[in-house]
Amino acid sequence: MKKQTILYILLIVLFLSNVFFIFHHLTRFGDKDHKPHFSMVEELNFNQEQQEAYNKMRSEHFDKMKSYSKRIGELKEEMYSNTEEDEVSKVFLDSVIDLIAIEEKNKDLEMYKHFRDVREICNDEQKAQLSKIINDAIKRHGKRGKSKKRD
Predict the structure, then answer these.
(1) What residues contact 72, with CB distance under 8 A and at least 6 apart?
(2) What's residue 24's pLDDT?
(3) Over its length of 151 residues, how does the chain's per-residue pLDDT go in tens digits?
(4) Would you call 148 helix, strand, or coil by DSSP?
(5) Closest by alpha carbon to 143, among 14, 43, 30, 33?
């Protein structure tokens, strides 16, 4: 019973986070603080050799992230396709939610590994700047749930 309750809570949290992301994404384009273009190469002032290494890493990283996102989308489609049915197996629901959680974990782990790899090609000054970029991104991500004052 406890496991099911936790999984239901996880399902609700995942659903609400998706709704919030969609809303935030749609309303963010009017935000003046939003930078339309961010380039790690420019921010860290990579030399040509670093740029080539980074571009290769970035391409591989995006392919992996796209794959995880696609799999998560497929799992959520499968889960929500049963909403019209009168009775849905709790085992089925628990299994799909567990698979979604595993894919989300893999996405986070891939993001972490990507930044560790980027760090490997940086000099000491760039490493300090990269740490600042990562910390700023974490802070921005944490503020997403807070409401913004609008005039």
Answers:
(1) 100, 103, 104, 107
(2) 67
(3) 677 787 778 778 787 787 777 776 666 554 445 444 568 888 888 999 999 999 999 999 999 999 999 999 999 998 888 877 778 788 888 999 999 999 999 999 999 999 999 999 999 999 999 999 888 888 887 665 555 544 4
(4) coil
(5) 33
Nearest alpha-carbon partner for 104 in 80, 146, 81, 76: 76
Q: Say how far apart CA 133 and CA 141 lie, in whole Å.
A: 12
Cβ proximity of 100 and 72 under 8 Å: yes
Nearest residue to 18 (alpha-carbon basis) of 100, 81, 90: 100
* Cα angle: 94, vertex 25, 66; to 5 degrees: 55
Q: What is the token pair recorded at 148?
A: 């913004």
Structure tokens at 142: 């944490």
Of 130, 116, 79, the closest CA to residue 101 belongs to: 79
